[in-house]
Amino acid sequence: MKINGVHPDLVLILVIAWSSLNDLEEGLTWALMGGLSLDFISGAPFGVFSLAMLIVTLLVNFSQGRILGSSIVLPLSLTFPLSLLFNTLALFFLYLLGWPVAWIESFANVLFPVALLNSGVMVLIYPLLSSVNRFLYPPHLSY
């Protein structure tokens, strides 16, 4: 799905949503699997996306339950800044490895539009993953 030449970071959106619903261990597992998948299919040096995804997941877990509770408000409020952070980290790692990076053009034409799109897609993804999470991990009833 592309809108004006940009597409959402579905792996990142899934990792942010699942990490906000579960504990650090599950979030890091999803981040590692998603990051490795992106590393395998991209032309970037191996590990760039995995490392960026793990950093984002640590920040989601740090915020979980501390900011705005654990409702849809948390992932929605974090998606835009974490999308910017994830893509900026990936570009920074590429820059450190000697790849040329057009910083201003990247922010203006890709990073900001993608972050906006990711925030919109999170509105659709989070309720679905929340339902899956409730099915997989039903709340314990206390008497």
Descriptive tags:
single chain, 5 helices, mainly alpha, globular, about 140 residues
Can you give a write-up of this model?
The protein is mainly α. The protein has one domain. It contains 5 helices and no strands. α1 runs antiparallel to α2 (24-41) and α4 (73-96) packs across α5 (103-136).
Structural class by helix and strand composition: mainly alpha
Query: Based on CA inertia axes, which overall geometry fits?
Result: globular
Overall mean confidence score, pLDDT: 90
Low-confidence stretches: none
In percent, how helical is the residue content? over 70%
| Biggest pleated sheet | none
Number of helices: 5
Question: What is the topological layout?
Answer:
Blueprint: H1 10-21, H2 24-41, H3 48-63, H4 73-96, H5 103-136
Helix pairs in contact: 1-2, 1-3, 1-4, 1-5, 2-3, 3-4, 4-5
Short description:
By secondary structure, this protein is mainly α.
